[in-house]
Write a structure and sequence with these properties.
Largest interface: B-E, 32 and 34 residues
Number of domains of chain A: 2
Shape of chain A: elongated
Structural class of chain A: alpha/beta
CATH superfamily of the largest domain in chain A: Ribonuclease E inhibitor RraA/RraA-like
Oligomer: homohexamer
Helix content of chain A: 25-40%
CATH architecture of the largest domain in chain A: 3-Layer(bba) Sandwich
Number of helices of chain A: 9
Radius of gyration of chain A: 20 Å
CATH topology of the largest domain in chain A: Glucose Oxidase, domain 1
Number of strands of chain A: 13
Largest sheet of chain A: 9 strands, mixed
Low-confidence stretches of chain A: none
């Protein structure tokens, strides 16, 4: 029932060290232009780095006779069931239809996810209990905060089916990565090469930024021409790339 | 696989004779305020009356490596499979995420649905082939027209799961009714009583409208007070209600 | 209680003969750039010409314990009261907050307004009973149609207070003019001069259009330079302006 | 003229200690699903707790000949009059039509409200003077900041009439409560029971959160089954609920 | 100054016989997913077929001291200059920033364009003089109608520079094709092959539709498998494809 | 090629000391109601003060065959060219069509602009590399953050042509001023008088705020009547205005 997806620990560690700006650039180079979830930001930008396979949850508009408190709290409710079913290391990612009128989750259920070892939480809707969430030290991403429980507007329907989150396709098992810029969705068959090339791109970017800060023009440097590629290789060989970390 | 839902032919006939304005009023009286799909209109207002159980289809945002013409035309594609799977007498209703950048269906697939005896088609997105659809003589409802196939924006994911269509919850088997005002979603357990009370309400409304056209004030008439209720009963007894049809 | 505003019959007749395109141009020349209500269109473009002083009605979001059918139908409900209070010759214009989820009025109440001699109806929301309204032969303007009564979303609050309709300020007694392009709001102290100058502008426009249809460039003609002004005066003097009507 | 509404000081104190998340949950249980104002956030989340009866102010779109600086600054202007008329302890809540093109109020007028003992300020539009407002130590809620005075877009029309704020009905005298999640509107006849039940709900929530942080599953705990209810009662009896405050 | 782009008359004729639904499908197959302008519809669906190279015009928001009637009517105003500069056979296509508060053009200037032999007009904003435009018998596409001249909201800036129209890139000289579904933008280097393949696709579609209307399933037919391809070839060879035109 | 516009250093210094709230008020008094860019906020409100002539850059929607990484990085790409062409002391202001799906610029290119002595950066779209931008100590304004490069959605088209930024007209050389409230656009021929009157208005505002904080009513004070004008003059004469700075 728990549909756990594996992610190689080395891959996970590599992805934790590269940013979503670089990851989405690498995906665009491979023809995937729509992998970043717009307007979803971290609750706490100091605890925004997050990587894990997607565990998805979809919502539909509420109907008043179904979406009542008694039903919503039943363990069989798809949302409640998901809280206990997301495998450790996975990211719970929700298709809340962009609704900002209610909060999909509050501090109690998110504290439970944190305790269970879940890697993070993403919604294209809102969350509740803003202050408490800011103090959890846990990667949580949303489009805003709303005090009411979201069942006044939407109710969970299916778990671990393909969803759209903020206009981006998410399949169960897709690799979800988050940082202070937001959240990107990586098809698992591309994750290893994207991670590898992103790490190299970030090393080049650090070299470029250092040159720029010292007055170099971006022409011929960003991206580097042959001369600057050679300079970059010398910089890497001299161990400066690592000391710049 | 085809998940056919029964609808009593007498109930169906009764629902075909009442409008969505009356049906949604009856649902509001029962606490269901969100059953009408806003901004979805009939392609041909002369062929808009439609009643049938819902066969649902959901969509997610497209990913460029999956949503290609070759994949979209496979019989196993959820959209293509749905065209052949909707049971006769049912309404195909789609959660197109409100996207107007592409057409969910065009004249060929809708002609096939018509041939198969499907009761009608509803999307909260767009359709293709506007001119041909206007000439089909078949109940089709959408938010607009767009020339490209919708897979450039969204792709079908699941059939016969709960969906949201234009912000309204739709469960497979819900009774979908359409007319020139638009489309309303009726939970099946309420359909019989809603149909009965709607038919009576429309009879009263015809009585009221007749009085209004002759100069009566709406106070005490709409809804009728005791005196006007008695006048209505005499009007019904005299057989005028039926001749007004 | 009925707050009737006078409009000079000659002024009214003059305004009935000029279009909203010309009227809004004249208002812009006087510094009023925001007098046309965008995206509000006539239900029946053959019965769209309408002129009369504004009788306003505002709405607020519904609260579930107040906005119930029993309360909405009371003669003291502000909407119901307005139906009987709009003075003949006036236009009922509603600030429906742009909500398209329900219909502010249906055929019965609008038939009553027509019977009472009201000049027309405008809402920046939706109306119910599309087919019946199209057959009333009465000037009615809206942003769309919706089957449910609007009290599932909004409820009337105040009559004859300043409102905003589709982003335009409307004061009780403002002159409301409608045609196939839509609805324009004219401050009463400007109505006479705007009507006079609009009538003259339309006469010039007919002259210009005639020349354009015969191949004239718009440079020097639209607006006319001295030579074309003289040609226009000869055209008027020859009585051709009237025969072009 | 000042329309002061009483609020029992004990009730006010109780409401100051419960959050809007809990208050809106209690209102939903009573059938009121639309009492939270979405996307309105506190200017200073450390000074967001606020409770008081509503003093309302509505706006309409500006007309260029009326909305000029000289008129806007007159003491008879509805906005200026409201600044001096809001009774101490009340919340000034504005229906700014969601407009973000101008600021409804700036630091001088809000400093005046603070001096006068007003409980707080809410708008569904924008405010001016962001930096100064963040330093006032006063509960102020808005949807954003804009430098121009709002009269370039909207102008105040009526005070203390029913309004909609961010899609929520607000009647003068409704109890407005704010915290870091946002603002909720409580009908006064429900305020006492909602406050009482919310306080109890928050005590239960603290118990639940504590158990969750120590590893308990949410099934059977949130909401508590019989066993956990008994544990909760023992926890309360042992005085731990208060020490957890 | 007139920047005329050639289009081969044979290509133009071929494009006039295929629809935008087919053209956009062919473009998607070539990796161009965003060539159809959403929500732009023909004023008169009976005069919607249109093909010609793009002559572009861009707009910026108005500034009150510049966008006055006297300036707007000068022959040097970019919009007025464009009316006389669009080469015959070209399509005037405007980036009106999606603004629906004013009409970019009215009947006089569009009558002038028609007289000059321009192929059609497209805007992602609104137009004025709805009734007159419906009677011109000329291909005109817009998102709605508005009575005021658009200079109350936006003013023309540059002609024949790259623009976005309704979210689609348009370069001067791109081939613009319109029909009852809307408007599609074709890069000129692809126009010949897209036209040829679209014509063939439409012939196949007519074959498919005919089979569907007689009861064939879409599986194996749409698109055709080997057996149906052979049947199609026999149908073409028998001359039925042409008689179906 | 670099189109540098002069700004008098004294004027620049004066504008750096007044806020956008005051500047936009002064522009409204001169009939310019639409000079503030809504919903654009500083990345770092402590480094938001910025004044300089506008260097503009426009964008159009991307086409997949043009907007590829190789093309975007060419020195001839209009965006890349702009980075090196913005004259020192100028503000780079971009018409990103309000798109939030990608970041117009990231930390490397903005670091280059900072090094080159550019006064600041404004976009009505998003930027990349949120954390790095917050640490630059450089005035940067946007509507949000997005990880992907913006060429997946839009591509730069023209530099130093009139643009619209967030619905406001911007001509090359217009004076752009920013602070914690946002960004205002000042026509250069008005800049000197607007700056002078804004400085005086802010001095009056400080006087008013001081009186308000000590309990004065705003009536007769804001704006000051004759008595308060005299008191203000005494306050200025006593040197308190400067000590209040």
């Amino acid at each position: 029932m728990s549909h756990a997806f594996d992610i190689d620990p080395t891959l996970r560690d590599l992805l934790m060290r590269v940013g979503t700006a670089t990851l989405s650039s690498q995906l665009i180079k491979r023809g995937l232009r729509n992998t970043f979830i717009p307007r979803v930001t971290p609750v706490d930008s100091k605890h925004a780095r997050m990587v894990g396979p997607a565990y998805t949850l979809s919502f539909i508009p509420s109907r008043e006779d179904i979406a009542i408190a008694a039903n919503m709290a039943k363990p069989t409710n798809p949302q409640r069931a998901a809280i206990e079913a997301v495998p450790p290391g996975h990211v719970l990612i929700m298709d809340a239809r962009g609704d900002l009128g209610g909060g999909n989750l509050g501090d109690i259920l998110i504290a439970r996810l944190r305790y269970r070892g879940v890697a993070g939480v993403v919604t294209d809707g809102a969350l509740r209990d803003a202050e408490e969430l800011r103090n959890l030290g846990f990667p949580v991403f949303c489009r805003g905060f709303a005090a009411p429980p979201s069942y006044c507007r939407i109710m969970a329907s299916d778990a671990n089916r393909p969803i759209g989150c903020g206009g981006v396709a998410v399949f169960p098992g897709d690799i979800i990565a988050g940082d202070s810029d937001g959240v990107v969705v990586i098809p698992p068959h591309l994750a290893a090469e994207v991670a590898r090339d992103a790490a190299e791109q970030e090393r080049v970017d650090r070299f470029v930024r250092r040159r720029v800060d010292r007055g170099a023009s971006t022409a011929g440097l960003y991206p580097p021409n042959e001369g600057n590629k050679a300079a970059y290789q010398r910089w890497v060989a001299a161990g400066e790339a690592d000391s710049a970390l």
